[in-house]
Amino acid sequence: MNLQSYSARHLQFSCQFSAMAASISHFNFPLLNSTTKPHVKHYPPLNIPKFSPSPARIPFSKEKCKQSTLRYAFSSFTDLLTGHGNLLLFNLDHVYGPLLELCASEKALLQGQQIHAHIIKSNVARISVFLSTKLVFMYGKCGSVLHAKRVFDKMCERTIFTRNAMLGSYVSNGEPLQALEMYREMRCLGVPFDSYTFPYLLKACATVQDLRCGAEIHGLAIKCGNDSIVYVANSLVTMYAKCNDLNGARKLFDRMNDRSDVVSWNSMISAYSGNGCCIEALGLFREIHKAAVATNAYTLVAVLQACEDYSSMKLGMEIHAAILKSRQLLDVYVANALLAMYFRFGKMAEAAVIFDDLDDKDIVTWNSMLTGFIQNGLYNEALQFFHDLQDAGLKPDQVSVINIIVASGRLGYLLNGREIHAYAIKNGFAYNVLVGNTLIDMYAKCCCMIYAGRAFHKIPNKDFISWTTIITGYAQNNCHIEALELFREVQMEGMDVDAMMMGSVLLACGGLKCLILVKEIHGYIIRRGLSDPVLQNTIISAYGECGTVDYMSRMFESIECKDIVSWTSMISSYVHNGLANEALEVFYSFKEATLEPDSIILVSLLSAVASLSTLKKGKEIHGFIIRKGLISEKTTVNALVDMYARCGSLDNACKIFISTRNKSLVLWTAMINAYGMHGHGEAAVELFTRMKGEKLIPDHITFLAILYACSHSGLINEGKRFIEIMENDYQLEPWAEHYACLVDLLGRTNHIEEAYQFVKSMPIASTPEVWCALLGACRVHSNKEIGEIAAQKLLDMDIDNPGNYALVSNVFAASGRWKDVQKVRMKMKGIGLKKNPGCSWIEVGNKVHTFLARDRSHPECDKIYQKLAQITEKLEREGGYVAQTKFVLHNVGEEEKVHMLYEHSERLAIAYGLLSTAKGTPIRITKNLRVCGDCHTFCKLVSKLFVRKLIVRDASRFHHFEDGACFCGDFW
Fold first, then answer.
1. Where would I find the PPR repeats (predicted)?
2. Torsions phi, psi of 821, nearest 5?
């Protein structure tokens, strides 16, 4: 049958349908109980009797069938069978065609299959091409490509309508490659194409972004004379745009003779908007108004999507105003686009008004609001809105679940995250890769990597993001070995890696402080050509974590275009490695690079200043922070409190703490630590109580700070009580550092036997820190018996801290065991450790002056030693000072010991301070080691006889000397 005869027959059938309405009556059918695909709608089954053929006209209306519901059409069709069943044999196309179309529009697959089954049972020798085409079309619309293909393959005769139906089935059900394969077969068979063929083929090309094939089909459309047809031209524009050829799309649009169809404009505006060309999209929107083409909802959605930055905010608000002015009912799609636009601009109040005024809210609208809260960091509001969604009777879908998982992770609400995880499992979302990846990230942010690992392994089809997210989570939560093991699995699977994954792998290598692994990964990155600015900065940090300053510096110098993160990584790495002066020098170079410092780099600088105790520089940075408006940031406030505390200015630390309204747990902890550092244990305990009153839950670091404060103030009962509170009230298992604080507290107060018994009964294995605390107490209180045990325990451990060896050596030296001292020093030398020399520094003017014991490198060396001699003479004459040589732990004569005491580094710094600062001003000194007992006495006498306040920070705590006394009460 040729195309003309087929069309004529189709027209004839349509005319016959119009005479069939008279006998249709209503009948109710019971609902089906069959199980079908989720999207399939359930309708009553067909109760179709058998019949015998008898040619006649059947009064059945196609138009009536289109206008009715499927239930009504089926009931009417059953009545028709009852009265005219014997007439249907010769009228299958007339009756079943409209019903199949209705099934297709309603996506009622089960009912379509029943109709198909009845057609087969009708004993017709061959089903017509028309009806077979309707079947292919119905199956395609109902999402069953397999059934459509079976019908198509069994057809002996196929028209272009049949092939178009099959093409549409492939394209609409996500099988564009099958559509293009069919196109090639049609070309080989010489099948003529019509104008409806090209949109399907062009959509398939757009889906797979096959520009070459799309251009070929474009040429064929020109050859067939179909390129000027509006819907073909629109499909061509969309194809070029989806294949990222916007110039081709625009040229085609500009050549269109008839641009009165709004769909053409929508296609081009959507193309620009979808590809981030917002200015072009907005320009085209202005042109459409000049062309007097009536816009529709699709136009508004596309142009609202193009309103991305603040320069287009005014236009977006004007469009909103125009919609309100028109007094038309706001379309839900336009409303969702308006919400998304206001979210991008952070205008949540305007978005809320739109949402509240919208009568027809669908789940997409609710999800849009949820996404907006998340995008603007309003995570608590998102959780509350999620409850509102449920109260409105709506069932959260996959998008809702993902948003709430994100909010739970950002807030660190593990319980909420687990609840929504359970909901996802119950509703079949948990094994979706998007939900799974978000769950991994949420658990990682809640520091719960056990659950993150389980969520990862439960994803059946993991994608690259799944692997990257779990590796990043392990690396960020100090599970460095697990991160590297997963990376090896990635390599064994042969997956490609990207810069983000390699950054996480470097973080794990740096966390392990394994230089060999960092070098290996660095070489791997270079070989794979993955290096980018972000990864280069990560490499700097990784080398810094490993303490290899030379590699770190070389990497920094090799970066041609250094960004703010490059400088921050370099400064932070210097601070991390105890090179605060070098960090400040890098910052001075940074200022010459004309870059604006951000809060992160300023926090690193404050840490450098704090380690040097350079109060003046700290105040300068504080002023800079105020001028830049960064004082409200939590990390900056925390760093300022810590800086002032470590620079000896407890008053300024208190002022910042009191003036901060929304105090975080970190800030409370920093202030508690500040009080403890300055020997104000009672104030620290009171502050801890106030913090509990604010309903804040202390963590391990908070308890470490309060135990430290108790230790340096001799608060034995309070220290014991805080260990109990930690375990019983907050279910926090103490770390070795907590036990070390308690041992130190007992030892300082001369409860050495109790401290020793506590160490032996500890629920965890004792660490070097614990034995070091006990040994230090034994040295102060001359407990040789327990000191011997602690010293031997330390020597038996594989320790790499030179300070611990130095302490053991000093204990032996105090007992005159010089041979043992020599053995300890030889052991240190054998493992490459060196004792840190005593060093003190003082800030005068705008410079830090550093002194070593018996140092003569200072430019004013002679004046300093002359002044120190005058000070010592005055202390001996007026203060009764006598050198305590027992603090000199060297095997030398008494006279040499006295001489060595007189030239300790802090005394040189004090002498220079008295020479270079105005009378009455405090002298601030920092020392890298613990102040010896003789120097402590020296400082007390200086404060009294020279009427100066001395603020000395040693490795243990602060000493405030004033009028011959120290605030530590000789307890340090």
1. 159-193, 261-295, 362-396, 463-497, 563-597, 664-698
2. -60, -45
